[in-house]
Amino acid sequence: MAQAPSRRGNARRDAVLMELGREVPLFQSAAEAVNDAAGAVLALGHVELQYLDRLQYGPATASELVSALGLGRRENAAVVERLELAGYVRVLPTSDSGQEARVELTPHAREWIESLWGPLRDEGLRLFASWRTGELAVVARFLAQTRAIQEAHATRLRSLASVPASSRPRPNRARGGLSPAALRRVHLFAIAHLEGPLHLADLAARAQLSPYHFARAFKSSTGETPRAYVERLRVEKAEGLIRDTELPLADIALACGFSSQSRFTTAFRRATGFTPARYRRGAEDRG
Predict the structure, then answer these.
(1) Is residue 235 in some structural domain?
(2) pLDDT tens digits for 200-221?
(3) Is there a domain that residue 138 lies in?
(4) CATH number for 281
(5) Terminus of the chain with fewer CB atoms < 10 Å: N or C?
(6) Confidence label for 167 from pLDDT (cuts 50, 70 and 90)
(7) Which residues contact 242 (CB under 8 A, 6 or more apart)?
């Protein structure tokens, strides 16, 4: 019969997890400090350094850079132009007018990358020289899995920064209302926490006001009460899930923060004129 793990074993595991939770952010901060120092030497910002890092692995088209780094095409073109003027990248000519041009690092850039980051790589290799292959495999797997988690989180955050204007609070610039920056903080917080309870105090904290003053200022700025605004966001999210997924309606209700399916149905009908089930049938008919 298998024995339950000892409390001592659980305590050791908890201690190691706490240490990991402390060391991973410190490792990330140290890596960012190295990049910041290298960026100062090269007179480049964080975004430009990301481009150099991506192009170390070979030339890339504008579409590939946009996909990998999350910028729009116009912003991507501006970054490439800055790097090209600084002599760090070059745009490769194409023989086909319909073919997308590729961007690659210049030898000048590769020399700088090697001189700035090469010693760090070499010291890391010396550190790992005494490690067993199995230990190295664990580190490699950990890095790959945490990178995937971070990339997914970055995608989520970028989606918050580009939420449709239709779902944002509707400012009317009335006196005594919230500033545009405060409205955006409230909006992003609400969007990120729709699955759970959203209390007035939580929203007010984003605007650095008491709940009473926040409710008055929010209504003055948007014409909506905070409660009506949150309900509108929940219904809009539910519309998208009904239209674009096959999730059961009960699961959608929970994913959108409704405490019960009956509350979901009532709020949805009030906002759209349809029950969730009827709305789904209509979406299927239109599809």
Answers:
(1) yes
(2) 999 999 888 999 999 999 999 8
(3) no
(4) 1.10.10.60
(5) N
(6) low
(7) 249, 252, 276, 279, 280, 283
CB atoms within 10 A of CB 126: 9
Instruction: Clarify whether residues 179 and 212 are in a common domain.
Output: yes
Element (H, E) at 283: helix 276-286
* 106 alpha carbon, distance to own chain's centre: 31
Domain total of the chain: 3
Q: What are phi and psi of 61, to 5 degrees?
A: -85, 170
Q: Maximum Cα–Cα distance for the chain, whole Å?
A: 72
232 and 219 within one domain? no
User: Are residues 113 and 51 both part of a single domain?
Assistant: yes
CA 64 to chain centre: 19
Q: Round the average pLDDT of the chain to a whole number and report it.
A: 85
115, 130, 177, 259 from 124: Cα distances, Å: 15, 11, 54, 51
Whether the per-residue pLDDT at 155 is higher than 80: the answer is: no
Give a yes or no: residue 209 inside a domain: yes
Tell me, yes or no, whether 182 and 229 share the same domain.
no
Do the Cβ atoms of 203 and 189 come closer than 8 Å? Answer: yes
- Residue 2 DSSP code: P
Whether 104 maps to a domain, the answer reads: yes
Instruction: Give the orientation angle of helix 46-55 with respect to helix 62-69, to 10 degrees.
Output: 120
Cα angle value 107/115/71 (rounded, 5°): 65
Tell me: the pLDDT tens digits for 18-48?
Answer: 998 888 888 888 988 999 899 899 888 888 9
| Enclosing domain of residue 206 | 167-192+199-224
DSSP label of 275: -
Residues 6+ apart with CB under 8 A from 21: none
